[in-house]
Design a protein that fits this description.
5 helices, single chain, alpha+beta, 31% helix
């Protein structure tokens, strides 16, 4: 399997909405507890500042397809926040999120950031294990439902 990352564009909004509206995906998002509404999703997209978003693209059986998203927010700070999800749930467990997280931490190093952070739901053991495998350490619990992780780049 080959994997690439391309910048997300407005043309990806419907796909991002579909992924983020799947209950098995948004269940672990700290700021979402129901399917997205198109108008709110569009407003979020248009108001994005100090962040970058990429679409995760994989090649299997000689065909490229979009399967998820990786992002970094708060780029104006010394410690940006990273996030990743594989929206195509049939692709879970194939190392895609690991590759995406390595991509984003490498990108942040190239931009001369010294560290990055992530917020992960306490019941999301898969993401906790993923981030720890890549080198993030749990540093605190920010709420009852999530923990904050940090990596030195």
């Amino acid at each position: 399997m080959k994997i690439e990352f391309r910048p997300a564009t407005a043309d990806d909004l419907e796909l991002l909405l579909a992924w983020r509206s799947h209950p098995e995906v948004y269940h672990h998002f700290s700021e979402q507890d129901e399917p997205l509404v198109w108008e709110n999703h569009l407003e979020w997209w248009q108001s994005r500042e100090n962040r970058r978003d990429w679409i995760i693209v994989i090649n299997t059986a000689e065909q490229w397809r979009d399967v998820g998203s990786v992002s970094v927010a708060d780029l104006e700070t010394e410690t940006p926040e990273v996030g990743v999800y594989v929206g195509e749930i049939t692709s879970w467990g194939n190392g895609i999120a690991t590759d995406a997280l390595n991509f984003i931490t490498d990108w942040l190093r190239e931009q001369n950031y010294a560290e990055a952070r992530a917020k992960i739901a306490k019941d999301n053991e898969a993401s906790q294990n993923l981030f720890e495998k890549v080198g993030f350490e749990r540093i605190s619990s920010t709420e009852e439902s999530e923990g904050e992780y940090l990596i030195d780049l």
